[in-house]
Every structure is written in structure tokens, then in C-alpha cells.
Amino acid sequence: MDIGLVGLGKMGGNMRTRLRDAGHTVIGYDRNPDLADADSLAAMVEQLPSPKVVWVMVPAGDPTRGTIEELGELLGEGDLVVDGGNSKWTDDQLNAEMLAKKGIGFVDCGVSGGVWGLQNGYALMCGGSDEDVAKVQPALDALKPEEGGFVHAGKKPGAGHFAKMVHNGIEYAMMQSYAEGWELLEKVDLVDNVTEVFDSWRSGTVIRSWLLDLLVAAVEEDEHLDKIAGYAEDSGEGRWTVEAAIENAVPMNVIAASLFARFTSRQDDSPAMKAIAAMRNQFGGHAVHTEPPAGGDAAGPA
User: Fold this and answer.
1) Nearest to 31 by CA among 40, 18, 20
2) Domains of the chain, first to last
3) Tens digits of residue pLDDT in 8-63
4) Catalytic pick from 88, 135, 144, 164?
């Protein structure tokens, strides 16, 4: 099939390569002219045969909204827009409604696979009508792994990105659990080969996963992770997952805790922990840790 691809960064560029390797014709556009096949969005659309299919892979929020609005002016009845970024499902509903007024179809597609997707394929979670998904199915078949990895999550706009959002929420919790286990093994002067312990879990255990494989690869390169700052960003989907849980009265203790742990990583000296230390000192005389005054010693545990 012929397909336009907007956004040729790490994932978008690899997706273009995988699609071309499968025999599809891809016209790519990116603000970086060194990556682009067309020098404008309009020029990319003009090169596509009808019905035109354009896949958007740009950052969520305003960049995606602006791109889809522009495509709404360039495309016509019977054409299709696929949002493969990490958009919030509520944005999908608005974009689908806007495009539908012009007879343009819309598919939201959660994409997972990162930089390894070129080699391994991408897990794809789509939302949209059967008719619209069918228009892009050849590309979906080329992008997904050889076995499994694709689901038409629902016919309502946003179903795909909602499924991907929950996937990322689960990912937050899994990563936090591995990280806490690693810290405990490192902390206690008992286990000599922490990296080998994690490596041994990759076969035969119930906690084996690709995330575990990636953690082992990281600690093999840097055993104590000394080269990495203890700061973890959140992409937004963890927050959206917790927000959706609140709106639907779904208890989500572990995923919520893993999200808040990322916020803690951004504090060099947690104000909340200062308050807790102060209260413990007030009611129980528990020692507080302080910076040393000039010429003196820091206060430490009693």
C-alpha cells in the first residue's frame, strides 16, 4: 500500500524502514529536511494516491492536534488519518469528530516496541471502525510481530490509546517492582552477585519479562548504575491511567504508587520527608539528620 508518515524520529523512522522492507511505499514528512521525503505536509499528501492514508507519529498534545487539524484541510472524503502517537483517548474522540465532518476516517493506534520495534515488530492496539481499520490493515500487518501483537481494541475512537495507556500504567508498576527489588539486593551485604541473580530470573521464573531482560542488560553495562541519575520522567500515560481509575472508582494502588515514586525521584531533598522526620522527632525523640554546622558534626541516628 501507499502511506504517508508524519514524524520520522526514532520510532517513526524505524517504522518507515519496516514498512518499506515489507514492500510498501512510504512518503515521509518531518520538520527535519534531512529525514523527510517531502518538503511539506501538503507535498506529502499530494504524492499519495486516493484514498489517502496518513499515519501521524509526533508528540502527543498540541503537536498532534495541530498536525491532524492541518491534515483535515488537506485530505478529503474517504481518506484516513491514523494517530500512532501517545495521545490521550479523549483527544482521539475530538479528532475523530472533527475529521468525520469532512468525511475523513480516523484510527487511533497505541504503539509499543520502542527502538526494538524495527527488528522485533510493534505491538499495536487500534481503535476505530472496521472499515477504517481495514484501510490501514496492510501497514498494521507489516508493523506487528510475526505472531500476535495486534488487536482491534474497540470500534469507538480512543479504544486503542486507552488500551495502550493501561499497558503503560502496568509497565510503571512492573518497573518499580524490579527497581525496588534491585535496590534491596544491592543494599544488604549478603548477596555477592546481584546482576547474576537478576539474570537467573530470566529463565523458568514467573517474573521473567522483557523489562527484566532490559534491566539485566543495563546492570551488565554499569553494575551499580553509577552513571545514571536517579531521576525518572513520566510520559503522561501513567497519570492518565490513575485519573481514569479515579473517574471509574477502580482501585489502582500499585500503579498509583509507582507513579508517585517517579515524582519522588525529582526531589533532591523531599519536603514531605523533612516534615515526617520533624514529626517523628517531636513525638518520639527520634533522631533527625541535619547538615553539619560550621565547625561541627551533622546530627545522625541516636
Assistant:
1) 40
2) 2-156 (3.40.50.720), 165-264 (1.10.1040.10)
3) 998 999 999 999 999 999 999 999 999 999 999 999 999 999 999 999 999 999 99
4) 164
Record the cell numbers describing residue 228, joined without a space.
545514571
Q: Which of 263, 264, 255 is nearest to 174 (CA)?
A: 255
Q: What residues of the chain score a pLDDT lower than 50?
A: 298, 302
Angle at 148 between CA 142 and CA 152, to 5 degrees: 80
Burial 3-40 (b: 16+ CB within 10 A, else e): bbbbbbeebbbbbbebbeeeebebbbbbeeeeebbbee
pLDDT per position as a tens digit, 253-272: 999 999 998 888 888 777 77
Strand order in the sheet with 25-29: 25-29, 2-6, 53-56, 80-83, 105-112, 123-127, 150-154
Tell me the pTM.
0.87
Q: 101 an active-site residue?
A: no
CA angle 144–145–148, rounded 5-degree value: 90
Q: Which of 52, 88, 135, 171 is catalytic?
A: 171
Q: Verify whether residue 171 is a known catalytic residue.
A: yes
Would you mind telling me the total number of residues written for the chain in this entry?
302
Helices and strands in the chain, H and E counts: 12, 7
Three-state DSSP state, 95: helix
